[in-house]
From TrEMBL, chain A:
GO terms for biological process: peptide transport. It comes from Geodermatophilus dictyosporus. The keyword Repeat does not apply. Keywords: ATP-binding, Cell membrane, Membrane, Nucleotide-binding, Transport. Its main location: membrane. The keyword Membrane applies. Belongs to the ABC transporter superfamily. It is a peripheral membrane protein. Residues 21-272 form the ABC transporter domain. This is Oligopeptide transport system ATP-binding protein. It is found in: Cell membrane.
TrEMBL record, chain B:
Its main location: membrane. GO terms for cellular component: plasma membrane. It comes from the Bacteria. The chain crosses the membrane at residues 101-122, 131-151, 171-190, 232-254, 274-300. SUPFAM superfamilies: MetI-like. The lineage of its organism: Bacteria, Bacillati, Actinomycetota, Actinomycetes, Geodermatophilales. PROSITE patterns: ABC_TM1. This is Oligopeptide transport system permease protein. One of its GO terms (biological process) is transmembrane transport. The keyword DNA repair does not apply. Keywords: Cell membrane, Membrane, Transmembrane, Transmembrane helix, Transport. Residues 95-297 form the ABC transmembrane type-1 domain.
Length: 353, 307
């Protein structure tokens, strides 16, 4: 039996200020026949009640894999959690029994996915799928669970919820389907909601509605929100803090305002310059040259160095800070800002220490 | 749904007419004279032959013969064989045997095929999975004729577990031929279930089910098996139609007096009316069970709607 108390409303915890989730040096590998793919290479972060952390990165940067590791839904094999720890409310999830981990999924941590159509089971009604949360975790009857499902569908603002509860996923529009996913995820008042690219499959106006809904629900319940995305606009609107991932590592971390206005890692800097700006209309965008790294063969030293415009190789590098051999640790650059770059001060435009 | 079924049923009429005509034409085109064959070693007198030819319209052209046949059909008369026995009686006598054989085969196919497929699909690359892969490949690649004789030899003659042929021991006599008849489909069902299950286990909604914290059993049974079984159930359904019509080899080898063996014997003795009647019935079974499958499909998968 787990001695975790998941019955108290999440809102009560929000005031205490202790972190709900701490991820420490998490490492995930995929061991396949063709070699070991290092998807997550030492990721650490923490999240408190009511906080929103955005994890930003391109495809293959390890952002989804780290989230799935936290949820305990990685397919093992081929995935292996090869190091680090995940503490949920002070207990190491990785040391729990499978059954205890299962009990956390839903009332403790829950998750919504990118493609709501394929993420919902096509052969069960949405009401049934939402109601399953109450049946599996609270032992409710089918009828009571269905009534709860209607309530939740109302709460995520699905029109005519009572009439639509027995409809199937394919009968809903994309935005409504994502609301169904959200209803399911918040059903048991989770401590933490992980949203993995929740709006990527939706068109822009619907995106805004879904993000607003998530934000409102977070305010009502005080849950912690981890938002995984590659959409800089979404991060800017919703998140407090942002962690930028590259090649399975966090390369920069800080408040969204700081990181976005003055990046201190060349990769973040490159991301910002590749975003169209209204002020710079007519000018050319500056893309990041090259390709994301092959995770089965990550470059030595700083994984970003082959694409970096600030890199210093050989003799031009400072001692111990050669970009192709010395791995840059994630370090404090200025108060409230961490980056994994030997020359962050230069990128930031402040004098080196 | 009702309208869809009605339309499909109406469509079977031209299909059955077309099928029966094709079979009729093929029997007509067979070389040899069925009337002469009736007498065996002792030739019939020319007068008798002439009379019989007249009675069965054998001197008329094909379209006239077929027209006479269809006229009979609409009066519920399937005609008689050359010995004067109504074809309907023959069907009534032989069909129960075939139905029993098909039922036994379907049970084998569904139970063994599904269980093997599910276990193999859940534990991919395990010893059991490989066993299923190898044994199904073996079964599929051996012709049913060889398999039937082999089973007869091993289980009937050597081990004497089952009767070698005939229906003297009731339902028990059907077990061995049923297994032989089912073997090919059984292997296919196991393979189909395995692949479908393995594919569905990787589906996004199964990941969702795990993320919801559902117990493993619920994830497998409710969210993986149900979806995986849709193609399997429809295959088994359609296979009932095939098994009811396709047991010619099995029934002949095991000497079961069903419609398959009857049709085989009738082809040899050129009993046109019997062949046409029975084969048309086989076609009807096939069409009917395919319709049942299509209706079932809509019940199993809410995304499919007719109308």
């Amino acid at each position: 039996m787990t001695n975790l108390d998941l019955t108290k409303p999440t809102a009560e915890l929000a005031a205490q200020g202790t972190p709900l989730l701490e991820v420490d040096d998490l490492r995930v590998e995929f061991r396949t026949r063709s070699g070991v793919v290092k998807a997550v290479n030492g990721v650490s972060y923490s999240l408190g009640a009511g906080e929103t952390l955005a994890i930003l990165g391109e495809s293959g940067s390890g952002k989804s894999v780290s989230a799935q590791a936290i949820m305990g839904i990685l397919e093992t094999p081929p995935a292996v959690i090869s190091g680090g720890g995940i503490w949920f409310q002070g207990r190491n999830v990785l040391e729990m029994s499978a059954e205890d981990q299962r009990r956390i999924r839903g009332p403790g941590i829950s998750m919504i996915f990118q493609d709501a159509l394929s993420s919902l089971n096509p052969v069960y009604s949405v009401g049934f799928q939402i109601g399953e949360m109450f049946r599996a975790h609270r032992g409710m009857s089918r009828k009571a669970a269905r009534a709860k499902a209607v309530e939740l569908m109302d709460r995520v603002r699905i029109p005519a919820a009572a009439r639509r509860v027995d409809d199937y996923p394919h009968q809903f529009s994309g935005g409504m389907r994502q609301r169904v996913m959200i209803a399911m995820a918040i059903a048991l008042d989770p401590r933490i909601l992980i949203a993995d690219e929740p709006t990527t499959a939706l068109d822009v106006t619907v995106q805004a509605q879904v993000m607003d809904l998530l934000k409102d629900l977070q305010q009502e319940t005080g849950m912690g929100l981890i938002l995984i995305t590659h959409d800089l606009g979404v991060v800017n609107e919703v998140a407090d803090d942002v962690a930028v991932m590259y090649a399975g590592e966090i390369v920069e971390r800080g408040t969204v305002d700081d990181v976005f206005s003055r990046p201190s890692h060349p990769y973040t800097d490159g991301l910002m310059s590749s975003v169209p700006q209204v002020e710079a209309k007519g000018g050319r965008l500056r893309p990041i040259v090259g390709q994301p790294p092959n995770l089965a063969d990550i470059p030595s030293g700083c994984p970003f160095h082959p694409r970096c415009s600030h890199r210093r190789l050989g003799a031009e590098a400072a001692p111990g800070r050669e970009c192709s051999t010395d791995v840059p640790p994630l370090r404090l650059v200025v108060p409230g800002r961490e980056a994994a770059c030997h020359y962050s001060e230069e990128v930031l435009g402040v004098r080196a220490p | 749904m009702g309208r869809y079924v009605a339309r499909r049923l109406l469509l079977t009429i031209p299909v059955l007419l077309g099928a029966s005509f094709l079979i009729f034409a093929m029997v007509y085109a067979l070389p040899g004279d069925p009337i002469r064959a009736l007498g065996g070693d002792r030739p019939l007198s020319p007068a008798v032959i002439a009379e019989l030819r007249e009675r069965f319209h054998l001197n008329d052209p094909l379209y006239v013969q077929y027209w006479e046949y269809v006229k009979g059909l609409f009066q519920g008369d399937l005609g008689t064989d050359f010995r004067g026995r109504p074809v309907l009686d023959t069907i009534e006598r032989t069909l129960p045997v075939t139905v029993k054989l098909a039922l036994v085969a379907i049970v084998f196919e569904a139970v063994i095929g599904l269980v093997a497929g599910v276990l193999a699909g859940i534990r991919r690359n395990s010893f059991f999975d490989n066993l299923v892969l190898v044994s199904t490949t073996l079964v599929v690649s051996i012709p049913i004729l060889v398999l039937a004789f082999f089973a007869q030899l091993l289980f009937g003659l050597r081990l004497q577990w089952f009767p070698i042929a005939g229906t003297n021991e009731g339902l028990y006599s059907y077990l061995l031929p049923g297994l032989v008849l089912a073997s090919g489909s059984l292997a296919y069902v196991a393979r189909l279930t395995r692949t479908s299950l393995a594919e569905n286990l990787r589906a996004d909604y199964v990941r969702t089910a795990r993320a919801k914290g559902l117990p493993n059993r619920t994830v497998i049974v409710r969210h993986t098996l149900r979806n995986s079984l849709i193609p399997v159930v429809t295959y088994i359904g359609a296979d009932i139609g095939t098994l009811l019509g396709g047991a010619i080899v099995t029934e002949t080898v095991f000497n079961l007096p069903g419609i398959g063996r009857e049709v085989f014997n009738s082809i040899r003795s050129q009993e046109g009316a019997v062949v046409v009647g029975i084969v048309t019935l086989m076609v009807f079974f096939f069409i009917f069970f395919n319709l049942v499958v299509d209706v079932l499909y809509a019940v199993l998968d809410p995304r499919i709607r007719y109308d």
